[in-house]
Please model this.
Amino acid sequence: MKRIALYLALFAGAVVSVAPYLMTLNSALKEPAQVLTTRAWSPALPVTFENFAQVWSEYDMSGFLLNSLLYAGAVTAGQVVFSTMAAYAFGRMSFPGRDALFWGYLATMMVPQIVTLVPLFLITREMGLIDTYLGLILPAAFGTPYGIFLVRQYFRTIPRDLEAAAHIDGAGTWTVLVRIMLPLSRPILATLATITFITTWNTLLWPLIITNSDATRVVTLGISALKGQYSSQYHLILAASAMALLPLLAIFLAFQRHIVRSIALTGLK
Amino acid sequence: MNVIDNISLRGGTARGQRRARRPLAPRIRALVEAYILLAPSLAGFLLFLVAPIFGVAVLSLFDWNLMGAPSFVGLANYRELAADPEVWRAVLNTIYYVLLNIPAQTVLALLLALALNRRMRGGKALRVIFVLPWMAMPVALGVIWTWVFDPRYGAVNQLLGLVGIDGPNWLTDPAWAMPVIASVNIWQYTGYTMLILLAGLQAIPHQLYEAAAIDGTTPVQRFFTITLPLLRPSLFFVLVTNTIGSFQIFDTVFVMTQGGPGGATDVLNFHIYQQGFQLFRSGYASALAMVLFGLILLITAAQFLYFRKRTVYDFS
Amino acid sequence: MSTKFTASAVAAAAVLALAACGGGSNESGGSGGAVTLRYAMWDEVQKPPIEKSLGEFMKAHPNIKVRIELNNWNDYWSKLQTQLAGRSAPDVFWDHVAYFPKFSKEGVLTDLAPLIAQDKLDTSIYDSKLAEGWKVDGKVYGLPKDWDTIGLFYSTKALKEAALTPADLDGLTWNPTDGGTFVRVLQKLTVDENGKRADEPGFDPKKIKQYGLAMQAPTGQQDWWNFALQNGCKLQDQPWGKWTIDQPSCVQAIQFVQDLRLKYHVAVPATVTNPPNGPSLDQVIGRGEAATAMDGSWMLRAFDTALPNGGFGVADLPAGPVGKGSVYNGLTEAIYAGTKHPKEAWELVKWLASEQHQKAVAQAGAVWPGIPALNDTFAESWKAKGVDVTGFKKAAEGTTMGYPLTVAADTYNVKALDIFNQVWLGQMSPQDAATKINNEANAAIK
Model:
């Protein structure tokens, strides 16, 4: 009896977790008029891709998705490469100023994004990068303290003997990093890449102030503008939202093992 | 890259002389190598993080709309915000949001974690399902929630209608707008919190429960005497990080209510954005940002002190 | 693995470089001598006819390409001002009276006076009231693009059900004491769930199915400013001056709008209509939740979609203690002072202000034109759809109040949205609200 109640409760929780996704997809597949006349949970019959087609072509959703892909992809690439380099220096090398600098990095982890927003806008303006991809990407592409911290912690769990052996064989720092540390760190790098991609893909605030034209508009802004424009045309808004959510869902399911594990770990640090 | 290889190669061939040169050369070499590795991240760190942090402190002493010339006003922005009822309303709204959000989310997450902390079929799959909301785009969620809570076409009022209840106008009613926004966050982060707590639960040694069971304690007693005390570090971590995160709520407010209706969801982050990039009072916005920063520093300091005192565990 | 890592490092660098190029090519301008102008607007309804007309323009000017940047009203202003602050504003953009004073003060607009003189442009074709609005100290910052006023949109079906005719909406009056004939008629149009009307015994104000009136105005332009004008209130002591909305005549107008909701129960409650999440008024009327709505002439197309085939009409606003009156406003196309292509931008603005272009837009029924000779073209396009829109023109020719000219429009708009929402909900008194907004908006004038 207790067991059944437990399963029921868990099942209810699971339903609540996926219901918004399913309802969104379901309603986005309905005909425009049906979105308003049928219940949110009644199935889309007949299924139509008209709404998707409309936001894709007329509303330039394809362009926004492409911009988001470029933005999140570039930031992720930069984050993984540069965080790894810095993490190795912090985690495995000793040099004057290391600990002070590392504490400096850690201290900035708690600075809310909105705090630096106005000065960051001004710096970007002086660099002439307002409303450019570069202005969008650069501030986040050099590795964040969070990423460096994550990788550094992982590096420290790798036994030092391996490196020492390589050093004796005459391998330099770069070789050790690339040949020994990286292959052993694949899980954490995959995690960092996935989390960075998801966070960047979902970012609203920075693109909101730094980009203005359709050419650089990312998908978060596209959806927000769509809501402002067609507040009651839910068929379009929902189709656009589904398009923004689904790529991430795919990435998440592909990497779910890494992500679930890394979240569990954050609490144990 | 070549530079590093050259240096390390030379280090390799000169192995015979290593002892003699140890005091200086390897140290310089290590220093150079380390800073080459650090250079990109350090450049980004200084230019895009450290400089703006100092910049915001300086800006908070000016009156500037970003177009004309800035004028120095000393502490006037801080005096103004101390006397500004809207700032206090924003602070209270933020606290209200945190209070709606954190307790519900933590209790739900704890219950889920307790339920999942046992061998059961489908446990792994359930974990993944519960974390699904965590990666959703807050902007899309805001849009979807606006629809779900639409008084006419939304699922919530349609469900309520089935049992004969005439649901309220959720987002245009100041009494309901904030709870709805909090519900987005609860939905999004409960699974994430659950995972962290579950990891904490799984780290509690099983023998403790067995011993306590032999002593004839009830499950409820065991929960309060074993689980809760040993889960405390995870629980506290979750509470602190989620609270700090909640203090920075922006996306959902921006998309769903723009701080309305009648300022009912005007939270600190949105207020700062509005002052900075709708009213273009960048000095005043910077002063507000400093206040938010101070608030979060306080919470972090509390966290630090707590961990100093309580860190008795090591799960490595 | 080494090559893999090196490869990904190179890939990262390549992506950044690619982004840099993308960023570069995004700058307006381009190769082969053709210039791309960015033209920013907020009204989706006007975009199709404007786009069509711009096709003609580009044919006549093969060296110029025009790219429209559309953002809804709410996003438009924060975006435009961020662009101005970031020195990356569109070459040509729609300008509104609310923001014009600030922009002219900050020097971000191009003075057209020398260009007009050089091309000997005939500016007498424009409505002088509108044209004067864009002049400051002998400088001209725009030519009239269009105009708008506020009218009383009604659902013909709701009127018929109440046994009223459009003529019954003419000549209504209101007053602060008992609401006058305006409220009487609105009571007839307010129906509860049992079919009882608000002027009948047994009417239940807690269960209203259809309200007599719907109002929604982030600033006041479509609701209480009109009552204010009809009550002898002046929003400002003078153009470019201080706000004076804490005067009794203004507070009475705010009180009246609150009374329509909370005292007479004839207007849709604020919990439904409060911006930004309340449905637009064409939706409210279309769903049958209200019989009439005070709204601007720019909403005609939206109402036509919600209530097609002559399902709606437009009546005059009621008269108040001082008389009739309506808020009258217009837009212009401004040239960004920092544009890299001033010559081409002027060519575009000349086209947009031309009779040929404004006629095309008026024919589509998008907006009343800035050239008065074309007003009939606009009215006829609506007559063909079975809607008489001449009420707007009558209102424009009667007593009007221009949109307030102030450098503190931002502050006023943000505060008004916040504070009036509270007043309409009954959470703040009209006097407190007026005093508060007045003080804060005036404090922002420097």
Chain C touches chain A through 37 residues (CB under 8 Å).
